[in-house]
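SAMPLE LOG
Freezer: B-3
Tube label: C17
Construct: single chain, 348 aa
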Amino acid sequence: LLAATGVDTTSGIYILMNTIGDGLFQYLPMVLAVSASKKFKMNTYTAVAIAGALVYPGLAESLTEATNIFGLNFTLPAGGYYNTVLPILLAIFVASKIEKFMKKVTPDVLKLFAVPMVTLLVTIPLTFLLVGPIANTASDWIGIAFQAVYDFSPIIYGFILGAAWQVMVMFGLHWGLVPIAILDMAQNGSSVILTAAVLPCFTQVGVLAAIYLKTREDKVKKGVLPTLISAVFGVTEPAIYGYTLPMRTPFIISCIVSGIVGVYLSIFNVTGYAMGGMGIFLYPAYIDPATGSFHSVIHLAIGTVIAIVLAFAVQMFVKVPTLYGDDETVSATEVTASDDQPVLVSAS
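STRUCTURE (predicted):
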C-alpha cells in the first residue's frame, strides 16, 4: 500500500503498517488451529502449539538438503507454512486422533503432561515429514501443469488460473507458480504468469456489495461493509474466511467471475512489470517503465469493472445464504443467550 505511493520501504512507518496489515494472516495457521481444535474436539493449547511449530521463525533458513529426521528428508513447502490452510487442518485432525488414543491408554495420574507431550512429539514430526513433502510435490505439479496449459493456450490458462487462484491460496498451492513468476520477472523485466490472478479481490468486492444489499441478517450487514473496504485495498482474507466461503455460493461466484476476468486479461496480454501491491494499489506495477505505455493499466481497469459489476449482478440474482440462521431464529436465540456469548444457529 505505502510502497505503491512511493514511501521508503525501509522507513519505520512502512515497517509498522506492514506488520499491522500482515500480522494476523502471516500466522493464520495458529488462528485456524483454535477453530480446528474445537471442530475435532481436542485440547486447544496443544493445537496452537502444533501451529506454532509450523510457523516457527527462522525454521526454513535453518534447513539444508542434508537435514533429516530418522533418515527422512526434513523439508518445507516454498514459503513455509505461513498463510496456509490445509496443512494445519490435516495436522490437527491427526493430532485429535492421537490425543484421543492417548487419553484412553494413559493412567489418570499421568494424563496432564503425558497426553499433550506425546501428541506433540508424534504429530509435529509426522506433519513435517508427510504434509511438507506432499505440499512440495503438489506445488511443483501445479507449477508444471499451469506452465503446460499456458504454453497450449493463454486464454484457457487465464480462465483456469483466475477461477482456481483463491482456492489455491487457501491450500498453499499457489507457491508452485509464484517462484516461476518471480524468475520470469527477474529474467525478462515483465511477466504475465500471475496476471489472471490479480483481480479476485474485486470479484469479492462485487459479491460483498450484493450481500450487503440483500442480506436480512443484521450481523452480516454490519460485518460485510468493513471486509468490502479491505478487499478494495487487496486484503480479502476477512471477506473469504468471514463471509463468502462459509456462505459457499458467493465464494463460487467470485471464483467463476475471476476466471472470466482472467480470460479478458489474457486476451489483451496484460503484463506486469513489478511485483507490487494488490487491490487499488496494483495498477502502477502494470505501467511499462521502458515506454510509459498504459496499455496494461487500461485493460486492468476495465477488468476491474467487469469483476465488480459481473460478480455483483450474479449475486443479486442468486439467493444470499444465511450465515447465522433465519431472522426469527437468530432473534429468539439471542434473547435467551448471555450478552457475552450470543447463541448462533448454524446454516448447515
